[in-house]
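User: Structure tokens for this complex, please. No commentary.
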Amino acid sequence: MNAVSQSASPPIESMPKPAMLDVESIRRDFPILQRKVHGKPLIWLDSAATAQKPQAVIDRVSRFYEHENSNVHRGTHTLAEEACDACERARTRVAAFLGAFSMLEIVFVRGTTEGLNLLAAIFSESLLRPGDEIVLTAAEHHANIVPWQFAAKKTGAVIRVAPVDDNGDIILEEYEHLLGPRTRVVSITHISNVLGTVMPIREMTALAKRHGATVVIDGAQGVPHRRVDVQEIGCDFYVFSGHKLFAPMGIGAVYGRMEMWEQMPPWQGGGNMVEQVTFENSTFAPPPKRFEAGTPALAPAVGLGAAIDYLNGIGLDAIEQYETALLDYALEGIRSVNGLRLIGQPRDRGGVISFVMDGIPDMEVARVLDAEGIAVRAGTHCAQPILARFGLESTVRPSFAFYNTRAEADMLVDALRRIGCRR
Ligand code: PMP
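Assistant:
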């Protein structure tokens, strides 16, 4: 900050207090939270797997089908125009939400998995050479491992893995040590879906950029919990899934810097991504269309736009602040349960808590919680390597969103205490 902007800052005392969330009112926006499971009020602690949808999103998707449903072929009739416009408005919202320079930097995909596969497949054709290195962290989801294995196999590139410490924090010196002239791609999770670790992606990106690497961020767990500004992070690509962001399933986005997209060949061929086709040859549309072959998931895309509007209405900073306090509160209770071992104690945590209970299989813990109406995930979380790092095959993972409450955290802790007593 320079001297001028410092002197322009209001004194601390007069700064507005952080916005508090009206959680009860927010909860009324999510119809599913009113339902019961086994006669008990549903306590949804599985938002890291998929988040629930506010009425505004559900209504927007219905409105699309009730009023605008058409395929995208602009110029042929009114509904096609409206459908195209709705889709492009959603693209604009995603761009603004991620701090992209232009809406043309946003490619719609089915979700994070498809987005990462798109990048790995294209890089296999256009970027990776034998001996190149792809750097991942030990905390990656399978979606950010397996596509790179395909790419490595195809190109002769090699995967290197940056370790985490016993808290689940990245060991930055070791990560830095892995980087070098051969590092072509660095692909890292923003937030671990098992440990909740918020990775220092800005710093990690800056280190990778010193070696000219292309940096990809798996933002599946990042966007629901942290404000994202891709320009501030400095990454080349940022990938996320709509369904974890309170939007419909079947839609996600890949942000990419325009200079990158422009140089990249298409990955899937078909309608919408071409300019001219003959049996001998095809020419391709400019980005983002070049990477969106076939009929797009229009209604989910429009729903994603509505989800972003909804989140902006609450405020990402207020959400982060509320969730941080809620997680601290839940952690305190969970730590007090006898025979429970927390897995990972990261410096900065987003959304999830993982644990195991002595002598009680994880699936059984989840089943007993379900009987109390409490939905948590138990299993591998599609991230076997990070579990192996902690000597485990699975954990129990409650995950939180801004519609969860302290009362729900209390009920989880009480239920865990009762489960602990059964031993
Ligand atoms: N990366 C991370 C960190 C995730 O948590 C997930 C979903 N569990 C994915 C990628 C894959 O997301 P999707 O299944 O929506 O493609």
